Amino acid sequence: MNALLIRDLRLAVRAGGGFGLGLSFFLILVALIPFGVGPETELLARIAPGILWVGALLSCLLSLDRIFALDYEDGSLDLLATAPLPLEAVVAVKALVHWLTTGVPLTLAAPVLGVLLNLPWPGHLWLMASLALGTPALSMIGAFGAALTVGLKRGGLLLSLLVLPLYVPTLIFGAEVARRGAAGMALETPLLVLAGVSLATLALLPFAAAAVLRVNLR
Amino acid sequence: MASIWEYANPRKFIATANRLLPWVGGLACVALLVGLIWGFFLTPDDYRQGSTVKIIYLHVPSALMAINGWFMMLVASLIWLVRRHHVSALAARAAAPVGAVMTLIALITGAIWGQPMWGTWWAWDPRLTSFLILFLFYLGYIALWAAIEDDDTAADLTSILCIVGSVFAVLSRYAVDFWNQGLHQGASLSMDRADHVANVFYFPLLVCMSGFVLLFVALVLLRTQTEIRARRMRALLARERMA
Amino acid sequence: MRGAMECMVQDLSVARGGVPLLQGVGFSLVPGEALVLRAPNGAGKTTLLRCLAGLQPPLSGQVNLPEEGVAYASHADGIKTQLSVRENLRFWASVHGVADIGEALERFDLVGLQTRLAGHLSAGQKRRLGLARLLVTGRPLWLLDEPTVSLDTSAVALFGDVVRSHLAGGGMAIIATHIDLGLPEARVLELGAFKARADTMDTFDEAFL
Fold first, then answer.
1. Crossing angle of helices A156-183/A188-217, nearest 10°?
2. Which of A150, B208, C42, C104 would give a disulfide with C135, using CB separation of 3.0 to 4.6 Å?
3. A41-79: pLDDT as tens digits
C-alpha cells in the first residue's frame, strides 16, 4: 500500500501530474466572485463561507477523472487488480492521494482566500476545520464516481453529473459549520454530523468503488 | 404454484405484460378521469386557499410516484445484483425516465402552487429541494445507462449507483431538513394525517393516487417490454456478427 | 504441494461484449511446462488470458489455478512514463513483496537504463521493462499476451532465455504469440478448434432470442 501511495504522490508532483491545478482554479474562482456579485464587503463577508465551500468542491471535482483513468489507459489498473493488494485498498489509497494533493492544499488555502472575501475572523478556523473534515469525503465519493466512469471515453462530464448530487450532504453540513463559525453561533451539531458523514463514506464507499472497478475491468 | 421468478424469463414477461397492459392501462385511465374530474369540478374551494388547492390532485400523486419509482428501481437493482435476472435490470432501466417525469411534474406543479401561496415560484423549501435533488439523481442514473454500451456492465454499474444513490438521497433529505426548516404545509397534505384534510378532498385524492400508481405500472410494463425487445435485437445483431 | 501448483482448465467458455468467442477450452499444465496459444486475430486469445487472470468471469467451465499465483502481462505494460525504469520496477516489486530488482534489470539488459525516465525509452525497451515486471512478481504462472511485440531478435532471444529459466525453476507459462520463441518443449494449443458456434448463443442468452 505504501508503495502505491508513494508512486502516486510522486506521479502527482512530477511534470504533467496536474498538482496545483485545482488550487489555481480555486483562487481564480474566488477572485471572480466579487466581479459577479459586486464589491460590497458586507455582502461578500456574508456569502464567503458558502462561496469558499462551493469553490473547494468544484476544484476537487476538476481532478477526479484522473484518479483511475491514467492507470486504466496504460494497463496498470489491470495489473493492480491481479496484484496481492485488494482492490478496496487500491481505491482507498487512490482517494487518499487525491485528498493529499487536492483536499489538503485547498483546506490550507481557504482561510487565505477568506481574507479576500472579508470572512470575519473566527470563521477562518472553522472554515479550515470543516474543510479538513469534509474534503476526505469529497475525495472518496469522487473516487467512486471515477470508478463508475473509468471505461468511458469523455466520461468527465458524466462524472460531474453523477458525483455532484452525492456531494449535497457534505456540502450542506460543511458550509453550515463554516457559516455558523463565521457568525459565532453554536456549531456542534453540524460539525458532528459532518464528521459522521465523512467517516461513514470512508468506511463504506471503498467497497462499492472496488465492486464497480471490477465490473469495469472485465 | 409457479414461482414468481418464472416472470424473470423475458418471453414469459412479455406475454404476461401483454395480457395485463390493457387492464392496467384502462383502469389507470378510468381512475385518473374520475379522480381528476371529481377533484377539479366537484369539490368545494378551500376556504383559505381558494381553487388553487386543487392542484393537489396532480402534485401529491406525482410526488408519491417520484419516490416510489426510485424505490422500485432500488428493489429491481437489488434483484439484479443478487439473482442476475435480466428482466429486473431492464425494468429498473425502464422505470427511470417515468420516475424522472413524475419528479418533474411534482416540481412544476409545486412551483405553480407556490406562486399564489408563498408569493414565489420557487422557494428553497426542504421538500421542494429534496425533489430537485431526487431529479438530479434520476438524471445521473439515466445518463449512466445511456453511456455504457455493454448491457450487463451497464446493469451492474447502474445498480450499484442506485444503491449508493439511495443512501445519499436519504442523507440529503435529512441534510436539507437541517439546512432550512421550510414553509411546506406538510400536515394538510400527507396521507397519515388524513384527518387534517376534509373527506371531500381526501377521497378524490385517493382515486387520483391510485390512478397515478396504475399509470406508473402501465408505463413501466410497456417500457420494460420495449427494453427487452431492444436487448433482443442487440443479441440478434451480435449473433449475426458471429456467424 | 504439487497438486496446488497445477493448472487445470476444463470446458471453459468465454465471451467478449456478450458474444461467445471460445467454448470447451480445456488443458492442464504442471510446473515446468509452457503452453503456446495460437489463433487468428480476434479469436479470443486476450479474452481467454484475461479470464484466466481472473479479471473477467467465464461464461461457464472451471478454472483451477494456483492461488495468488498468476502474473499477467497484457498489451499495455502498465509503465508510468514520468517515472524512471528503476522506480517503475521497484514499485511492482514492493507491491508483490519482493525486495530485489537487480536480477530483473540484469536479465532484460536494463541495468544501463535504470535511471532513465520510462517516457524516454524506445518501444522495445519499454516492452523489456514491462516483461521484467514478471520477474519481480515472484509468481509461478505467467500469462503473456503477445509478449514479443516490438522486440528485436536479440531481445526475443533474451526473453526466450528468461522464460526457459522460469520454467526450469518450476514455473509455468501460457503464451499467446505468433512467432517462434525458441521454446521447442512448449506445447501448442490451436484455439481455432474451440471457436464458439452460433448455436451456443441459445444456451447463453436463450431467453433473449
1. 170
2. C104
3. 889 988 999 999 999 999 999 889 888 988 898 889 999
Residue (of C131, C32, C159, C21) closest to C72 by Cα position: C131
Amino acid at residue number A39 = P
A105 lies in which domain range?
Answer: 2-217
Tell whether B228 is within 8 A of chain C (Cβ): yes
The C-alpha cell 479470443 sits at: C44
Are the beta carbons of A162 and B157 separated by less than 8 Å? no
CB-based contact C134:C43 (threshold 8 Å): no
Angle at C143 between CA C161 and CA C17, to 5 degrees: 150
Q: Report the relative pairing of strands C7-16 and C60-64 from DSSP bridges.
A: antiparallel
- Which residues of B have a CB under 8 Å from any CB of A? 133, 136-137, 139-140, 143-144, 147-148, 153, 156-157, 160-161, 163-165, 168-169, 171-172, 174-176, 178-179
Q: Which one of C198, C201, C208 has the shortest CB-CB distance to B231? A: C208
For chain C, how long is the longest CA-to-CA vector? 60
- Please give the tally of structural domains in chain A: 1
Most confidently modeled range among A80-84, B161-165, B226-230 = B161-165
Helix (H) or strand (E) holding C13: strand C7-16
For chain A, the chains sharing at least 3 beta-carbon pairs closer than 8 angstroms are B, C
Q: What ipTM was estimated for this complex? A: 0.90
Q: What is the CA radius of gyration of chain B?
A: 20
Amino acid B15: pLDDT: 87
Give the angle subtended at the CA of A20 by the CAs of A174 and A138, to the nearest 5°: 25
| Three-class DSSP category at C63 | strand
Q: Are C10 and C2 in contact (CB under 8 A)?
A: no
Q: Which CATH superfamily is domain C31-57+69-193 in?
A: P-loop containing nucleotide triphosphate hydrolases (3.40.50.300)
The amino acid present at C32, given as its one-letter code, is: G
